[in-house]
């Protein structure tokens, strides 16, 4: 009878060690997962800026202006030009100008170091011109 008690005791000790090992691994994965989420959640701050100028040649057009998936402007343009100062917020940025009447999209990859960008309309087409700037705020 003592032989069966010893084997039951060994079985219970083995199950206890196995359960402890499983708990340790689960908590290890939870710790590592929460640590990597904190790193990914931190927004990287960029000091570069974009200066976006919408020329008065766009007067009367209904435009939407996006950088990546962020809407910056959605309005019918007035007779005067519009100037926007935008902080860079991503490693790579794309400027998209959408003509709301024709739904024509004009995409443009922006310089990662910041720049001055001019948007104008010639012969019914939207043109984007980028000039290198220091991209730093003054």
Q: Could you characterize the architecture of this molecule?
A:
- There is one protein chain.
- The protein is of the alpha+beta class.
- Helices cover 29% and strands 38% of the residues.
- The protein has 1 helix and 8 strands, in the order αββββββββ.
- The strands form 2 sheets. The protein has a 4-stranded mixed β-sheet with strand order 4-1-7-8, with no helix packed on it.
- The model has no long low-confidence stretch (mean pLDDT 85).
Summarize the structure.
Helices cover 29% and strands 38% of the residues. It has 138 residues and is of the alpha+beta class.
Q: Please give the alpha-carbon distance between the first and last residues.
A: 88 Å
**Strand numbers in spatial order across the main sheet:** 4-1-7-8
Amount of helix: 25-40%
Class from helix and strand fractions: alpha+beta
Q: What is Rg?
A: 29 Å
As residue ranges, the low-confidence spans are: none
The oligomeric state is single chain
What is the count of β-strands? 8
Largest sheet: 4 strands, mixed
Number of helices: 1
Give the overall shape, derived from the CA principal axes: rod-shaped
Q: What share of the residues does DSSP label as strand, in percent?
A: 35-45%
SSE pattern, N- to C-terminal: HEEEEEEEE
Average pLDDT metric: 85
């Amino acid at each position: 009878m003592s032989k069966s008690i010893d084997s039951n005791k060994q079985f219970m000790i083995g199950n206890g060690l196995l359960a402890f090992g499983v708990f340790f691994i689960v908590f290890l994965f939870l710790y590592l997962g929460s640590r990597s989420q904190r790193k990914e959640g931190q927004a990287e701050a960029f000091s570069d800026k974009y200066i976006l100028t919408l020329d008065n040649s766009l007067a009367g057009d209904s435009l939407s202006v996006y950088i990546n998936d962020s809407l910056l402007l959605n309005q019918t343009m007035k007779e005067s030009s519009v100037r926007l100062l935008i902080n860079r917020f991503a490693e790579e940025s794309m400027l998209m100008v959408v003509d709301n009447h024709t739904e024509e999209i004009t995409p443009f990859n922006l310089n990662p170091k910041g720049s001055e960008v001019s948007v104008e309309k010639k012969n019914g087409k939207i043109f984007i011109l980028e000039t290198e700037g220091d991209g730093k705020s003054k």
